[in-house]
From TrEMBL:
<dbReference type="InterPro" id="IPR031938">
    <property type="entry name" value="INSC_LBD"/>
</dbReference>
<dbReference type="Pfam" id="PF19427">
    <property type="entry name" value="Insc_C"/>
</dbReference>
<protein>
    <submittedName>
        <fullName>Protein inscuteable homolog isoform X3</fullName>
    </submittedName>
</protein>
<dbReference type="GO" id="GO:0008356">
    <property type="term" value="P:asymmetric cell division"/>
</dbReference>
<dbReference type="InterPro" id="IPR016024">
    <property type="entry name" value="ARM-type_fold"/>
</dbReference>
<dbReference type="InterPro" id="IPR045789">
    <property type="entry name" value="Insc_C"/>
</dbReference>
<dbReference type="InterPro" id="IPR039921">
    <property type="entry name" value="Inscuteable"/>
</dbReference>
<dbReference type="InterPro" id="IPR000225">
    <property type="entry name" value="Armadillo"/>
</dbReference>
<dbReference type="InterPro" id="IPR038205">
    <property type="entry name" value="INSC_LBD_sf"/>
</dbReference>
<dbReference type="Pfam" id="PF16748">
    <property type="entry name" value="INSC_LBD"/>
</dbReference>
<feature type="domain" description="Protein inscuteable homologue LGN-binding">
    <location>
        <begin position="41"/>
        <end position="73"/>
    </location>
</feature>
<feature type="domain" description="Protein inscuteable homologue C-terminal">
    <location>
        <begin position="94"/>
        <end position="512"/>
    </location>
</feature>
<dbReference type="InterPro" id="IPR011989">
    <property type="entry name" value="ARM-like"/>
</dbReference>
Amino acid sequence: MAATAGSNVQQKIAEVLEGMTFPAYMNNADNTKISTPVLTDIDSVRQWLEDLRWMTETECMTVLQGKTIQPEDGESLPSPVRNTKEHIKMVRKRAHIITAECAKLFHKLDKERWKKVHSNALRITCTIRSLLHDISAHSPNLDIDVFQQQQVVMEECAQLIKHVESIGEINGEKPQKLPMVHSLTCLGQAFTRLIDKVLAHEVRTIVEGVADSPSAYCIKASITSLVGVAQGEPQMCHLIVKEGGVRALFTICRQDTANFVKSQALRAVATLCSVPEAIAEVEKVDGVGCLTDILCDPLTTEATRTEVAGVLAQITSPMLDHYRHVSGFIENMEDLLRGLIGLCETASSPEVFLLGSAAIANITFLDSMASEFLARYQVARVLITSSVRLKVSSIFIKDQLCTVLANVAMLEQCREDIIQCNGLTVLVGCLHEKPPYNKQTERVACERVQQKAAIALARLCKDVITAGVVKQLKGLQRLVELCRKPKERNYSDSVLVACLATLRKLASVCCTNMLLFSRPPSVSWPVFAVLICYHFPGHPP
């Protein structure tokens, strides 16, 4: 019985297997061996699994959508800081519109266009009320002085409407213009003070986010908002400095645990230092000492050191209207220059080299002591070698390079370094820069490159051999061309004077004719320059 039952089971299994369809890969060419079937190879099982997947995914999605994803501790950015940048832009944009409308109303009052005064005044007051409503909705916790100023603005709006509603001829006389002008003036002044207070409150929120945020994410987001608000906006830079923005940023830079955000903080400092108040604040917090420590720290990354160079280039820029000596530079000058030269020597990109060389160039104008340090650390050799290694082509980089070489060429040690490192070739190449650039800033930079290259060559050519090398490099020919063709120098008189001085220096070194030191009154400067060049042996006519 048992054997018969076993054979029946095996027979049924065999029948079931024979009725199944198996993939082709399970049979070989000789049909001698068949692999054991897998459940997923059965059509009904595979269909059931596919249907099950859709049913379970739908159920899982329903459950997940009903749950909130909790952020990690400290990773959620407070909503006032998150929306402050956009809110500040909105407030300033609408304030500009209201100010423009007020100017138009003044013009209509001046021209006594009474029919349009009423509608314009109503539009201004309605726009102001709408703005005040949006400000209160965004920042319900405004300071008490902001609320008080809002009340003042509302009262001035009511006073203006009162005067406007009274427009009409009385006994044949025209409306009085003076009271309405006075009311509109008071409204404008009150509105300006209100906007300043509102912006100061928003800026304070960002600064507090920089100084008191509990996490790295919040600090980064706050600094990003700070830079976005201050970029190209002197008024906002003033407010940020007034609210302690510079002090908060340097506090972060001094923290050893804040390396993750130092580069951003330094970039924010450079942005703010476009206004004199920020540079004065840098002095108060010993910012130069802090920058020196970061720059000279061997553990500081290149990105952070590059941002330090950017700050130094900004606060020492001679192009600023408020250019002055910053306290702390003289005491830290040697360390700063050593760190900047090291940054240029190991620069991984032209952008890094640009900021480092710009800071060095600006520092050379601060004090004569800087030239001694530059000679000690072979700045000419480092800059020329690095510029060749990086294959720099930017006119702005060449501007900084020529500035440094021209300023240090008076020192004998630097002069020898420039000549030995093929610096004459670099300078003559800078003379051949062409002024037709697309942007005005590039054209001006090209003029500076030509002028400083000519000055550097004049200071280097103290002997016949050096002057002969310049002539062989076709530097003499280019100097004459710059003198004779104003278009080649973008019609710049400063380039003309520098080229004439260089030609005169070359003539004094190579010629014994003392008449070359004086120009006859009847001979123009370009012609005089050409006459000088003819005294060089072998010069083409």
